[in-house]
Specification:
Blueprint: H1 3-22, H2 38-44, H3 50-64, H4 84-95, H5 105-108, H6 110-113, H7 116-128, H8 145-157, H9 159-162, H10 182-193, H11 202-208, H12 213-224
Helix pairs in contact: 1-3, 2-4, 2-7, 3-7, 4-7, 8-12, 10-12
């Protein structure tokens, strides 16, 4: 692994996080959920370059790890195996200031990773990475009343968009939730429900608006425990990305 670049990236964060936070301190603007055009549309049409995608991902790996697995405590989500379309949309939204993420903002800028071609390259690479077979899970195991209620809530509210096993839908920009860390999903669920995530799908905001905190935890607990197809997983939780030897 090229630790020098990662160290430089970390120093960049120390210098820019405070400044970039100011960009999100003003009254937030209203965001259209999936407005056509911009870098999102440009990146979708470009042919990805894997070699360059690896180079760009080195910047991302300072937080998301070289495997793209993030961390179980939910500070950083697992990106590996996510739909490329979803990754493109979220990265473009952060760059455009449509999703408030002051920690990631400086790393996502063209000055750090490049333009639309870099978005196309790095998202294709991330989507190709095998997922962590040991993602962070919620507190209730199968067989508990909370697990059963979470499953019921999921089937009644989430399947239509996210699929029967939370596999998502790339072309419709519905993220893959299976295999994601429980604590990260709880935070995003709360922000979407409470209107704090400005680029959230308004249909989802309406769907989960009435959820209590306990219901949110139960449904996210269930999602965190949905088994991921073994073909999409790394061979073990100790797998290391060979592209960063």
């Amino acid at each position: 692994m090229k630790f020098t670049l990662i160290a430089q990236t970390s120093l960049l964060a120390l210098g820019l996080i405070t400044a970039s936070t100011a960009a999100f301190s003003a009254k937030p603007k209203i965001v259209q959920w999936n407005k056509p055009g911009g870098e999102e549309e440009q990146a979708m049409k470009l042919k990805p370059n894997r070699k360059h995608g690896i180079e760009v991902f080195e910047v991302c790996s300072a937080c998301h790890l070289t495997e793209g697995w993030g961390v179980k405590n939910g500070t950083f989500p697992q990106l590996a195996g996510q739909h490329r379309e979803v990754l493109i949309k979220q990265l473009a939204d952060i760059r455009a200031g449509n999703r408030d993420n002051p920690t990631m903002y400086p790393f996502a800028q063209p000055s750090s990773i490049g333009g639309p071609q870099s978005i196309a390259d790095v998202t294709a690479y991330i989507a190709s990475l095998p997922m962590n077979p040991d993602n962070g899970k919620g507190p209730w195991k199968k067989g508990t009343p909370e697990y059963a209620q979470g499953k019921k809530l999921f089937k009644a509210n989430c399947v239509k968009c996210h699929g029967s096993h939370a596999q998502g839908n790339g072309p419709k920009f519905y993220p893959r939730l299976e295999g994601q860390h429980y604590k990260y999903m709880i935070r995003q669920f709360d922000w979407i429900r409470d209107g704090k995530r400005r680029n959230a799908n308004p249909d989802m905001m309406k769907q989960i608006k009435a959820f209590t905190n306990k219901e949110a935890k139960m449904v996210v607990n269930y999602v965190s425990r949905i088994p991921v197809n073994p073909k999409d997983l790394a061979p073990s939780k100790d797998w290391l990305n060979p592209d960063f030897d």
